[in-house]
């Protein structure tokens, strides 16, 4: 059978690799039999974890013993050379042998090596790191999450266009609603760059999204908007704050429900609601940051996730390829 999607996989990045990576591929393949996985890494280690549930027609292992370490700086990761599993996986996309690349390895090195190998989409100056966040209604795309500390108004407008294109690729039945993350919702609030961005987006009529103005940090999860735009400095702080808050809430709730007899009894009586709550905040369901703005999409899986989380990142890959995200961005940016 002709495989319609080819995913280049860096099998050696992140905790518990390559076992976690291969288990994630096996789990993903169960519902995606049209996908072919080009797996880059140490063949001797990888083959220990492949089994009959993943047929040989579904994957190819490209052997290398060189890896980018999690402790490397971005520059050190790039200097490790062109034979690392990360570099070879990205190069596979550059040479059009794969449609998309994914790694759970060193984030900084992944961004640097991607920029060294892949071209920018025409009329986009800077790529952005984006991710999915849950809200009261569904999901939001948030960008930039740290790729660019300083941004111009043009960069933020580009992020708005790319973010809305990504949202429509992942959720084609929903309308994209964009807002700028700011310290207030009034037009006079914020620095000069964000105010300039607000004015320019308000005047544009040829947009593939609805511009909703500003949004404050305490309203990120309301669901009134689903594409949230910020510079990388602001976005990264917002991301880490949200992750820390979610971890704190779940940890405190667990202690309250297991600390004494009354808590344990209450948790048994509310087991269904607690499971729903736990699933809603399960970070594995939202795993898979997307590096967009390059002429091929690059997916970053969280290094500490398990095989379920990695499988969900692979699902992000397939949705992006099937929806032709890069074509959408090119059309909308022009």
Describe the 3D structure.
The protein has helices at 19-29, 43-46, 74-79, 85-94, 107-117, 153-170, 192-203, 232-258, 261-269, 271-280, 307-322, 325-333; strands at 5-10, 35-41, 59-63, 100-103, 128-134, 139-143, 177-181, 210-215, 227-229, 289-292, 298-300. The model has no long low-confidence stretch (mean pLDDT 88). Helix 4 packs parallel to helix 5 (107-117), helix 6 (153-170) crosses helix 7 and helix 6 (153-170) runs antiparallel to helix 12. The chain is 43% helix and 16% strand. It has 334 residues and is of the alpha/beta class. The chain contains 12 helices and 11 strands.
Q: In a few lines, what is going on in this structure?
A:
It contains twelve helices and eleven strands.
List the helices and strands and how they pair.
Blueprint: E1 5-10, H1 19-29, E2 35-41, H2 43-46, E3 59-63, H3 74-79, H4 85-94, E4 100-103, H5 107-117, E5 128-134, E6 139-143, H6 153-170, E7 177-181, H7 192-203, E8 210-215, E9 227-229, H8 232-258, H9 261-269, H10 271-280, E10 289-292, E11 298-300, H11 307-322, H12 325-333
Parallel strand pairs: 1-2, 1-4, 2-3, 4-11, 6-9, 7-8, 7-9
Antiparallel strand pairs: 5-6, 5-10, 10-11
Helix pairs in contact: 1-11, 4-5, 6-7, 6-12
What is the CA-atom radius of gyration, in angstroms?
A: 21 Å
Helix content: 40-55%
Parts with pLDDT < 50 across at least 5 consecutive residues: none
Give the helix/strand class. alpha/beta
Number of strands: 11
What global shape is seen?
A: globular
Task: Kindly report the spatial arrangement of strands forming the biggest sheet.
Answer: 3-2-1-4-11-10-5-6-9-7-8
Order of helices and strands: EHEHEHHEHEEHEHEEHHHEEHH
- Separation, N- and C-terminal Cα atoms: 37 Å
Largest sheet: 11 strands, mixed
> What's the average pLDDT?
88
Q: Bin the strand percentage.
A: 15-25%
Total helical segments: 12
């Amino acid at each position: 059978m002709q495989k319609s999607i080819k995913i280049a996989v860096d099998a050696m990045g992140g905790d518990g690799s390559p076992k976690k990576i291969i288990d994630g591929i096996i789990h993903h393949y169960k519902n995606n039999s049209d996908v072919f996985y080009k797996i880059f890494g140490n063949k001797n280690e990888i083959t220990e974890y492949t089994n009959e549930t993943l047929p040989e027609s579904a994957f190819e292992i490209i052997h290398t013993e060189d890896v980018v370490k999690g402790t490397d700086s971005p520059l050190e990761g790039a200097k490790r050379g062109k034979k690392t599993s990360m570099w070879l996986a990205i190069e596979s996309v550059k040479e059009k042998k794969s449609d998309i690349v994914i790694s759970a390895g060193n984030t900084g090195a992944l961004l640097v090596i991607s920029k060294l190998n892949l071209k920018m989409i025409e009329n986009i100056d800077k790529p952005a790191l984006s991710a999915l966040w849950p809200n009261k209604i569904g999901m939001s795309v948030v960008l930039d999450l740290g790729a660019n500390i300083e941004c111009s108004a043009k960069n933020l407008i580009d992020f708005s266009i790319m973010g809305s294109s990504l949202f429509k690729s992942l959720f084609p039945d929903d309308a994209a609603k964009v807002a700028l993350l700011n310290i207030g919702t009034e037009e006079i609030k914020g620095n000069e760059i964000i105010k300039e961005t607000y004015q320019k987006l308000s005047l544009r009529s040829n947009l593939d999204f609805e511009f909703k103005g500003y949004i404050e940090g305490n309203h990120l999860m309301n669901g009134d908007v689903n594409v949230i735009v910020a510079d990388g400095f602001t976005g990264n702080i917002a991301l880490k704050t949200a992750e820390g808050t979610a971890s704190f809430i779940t940890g405190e709730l667990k202690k309250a429900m297991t600390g004494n007899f009354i808590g344990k009894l209450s948790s048994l009586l509310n087991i269904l609601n607690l499971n729903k709550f736990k699933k809603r905040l399960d970070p594995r369901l939202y795993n898979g940051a997307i590096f967009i703005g390059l002429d091929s999409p690059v997916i970053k899986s969280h290094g500490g996730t398990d095989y379920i989380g990695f499988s969900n990142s692979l699902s992000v890959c397939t949705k992006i390829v099937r929806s032709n995200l890069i074509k959408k961005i090119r059309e909308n940016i022009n």
